[in-house]
Write a structure and sequence with these properties.
By secondary structure, the protein is an alpha+beta fold. 29% of the residues lie in helices and 20% in strands. It has helices at 2-21, 35-43, 53-71, 100-107, and strands spanning 117-123, 129-135, 141-147, 151-153, 159-162, 180-185, 188-191. The chain starts with a helix and ends with a strand.
């Protein structure tokens, strides 16, 4: 029995040694086996968001400005709506029927902005979000605003930050990602200067 295993084990050992040593210096990575990919990777480099001081300064400026608005107390909501929450009125906005399922699901969050509104965020592609603002007293969609990097808002404040500051965003390359602060007044967003 031992004699019968000698040759297969020898053959297996030789196969393993050959397989492990068959690689060459050219087998560095996946790209090296695909010349077109290797050329493209040499040409295209990843841009890191915080690779220069200018972007870090922009981020800090945006962060400090938006935090000042949010922490000032000037935009606090005094009265919270406590009545029955109205469903979205699909006739109140041209896009409501298109997004009726997402709006209905988003309304389940309840009041999440400015004391009586629900913000429903719906994706519209890569780095694209539509934010519908619905008055929960009557269900009317009072605003729709589009952004590239999300939004920040609170049920206790009238401040709506579109594209809130994010240290991973390269503001020099993504102009649509610049943070913008708005105040909700009488159901309409007004840019804060």
């Amino acid at each position: 029995m031992q004699k019968n295993l000698k040759y297969p084990l020898l053959l297996l050992s030789v196969t393993i040694v050959c397989a492990c040593s068959s690689g060459s210096d050219d087998d560095k990575n996946l790209a090296s086996t695909h010349p077109k990919l290797e050329k493209q990777l040499e040409r295209d480099t990843a841009n890191l968001a915080m690779r220069n001081e200018e972007n870090a300064d922009l981020y800090q400026r945006y962060r400090i400005t938006t935090e000042e608005y949010e922490n000032s107390g000037d935009y606090n909501v005094k009265n919270m709506f406590r009545g029955k929450l109205a469903p979205a009125d699909e006739a109140s906005h041209a896009d409501a029927r298109t997004y009726q399922t997402a709006l209905r699901e988003g309304m389940a969050q309840g009041v999440n902005f400015a004391g009586k509104y629900t913000v429903v965020t719906i994706g519209c592609g890569t780095a694209c979000q539509q934010h519908f603002i619905v008055d929960r007293e009557n269900g009317k969609i009072v605003e729709k605003i589009q952004g590239s990097a999300g939004a920040r808002f609170s049920k206790n404040s009238r401040i709506f930050i579109l594209n809130p500051p994010d240290s991973t965003v390269n503001y020099n390359e993504c102009r649509d990602c610049k943070p913008q602060a708005y105040e909700l007044v009488d159901g309409k967003l007004h840019a804060i200067k």
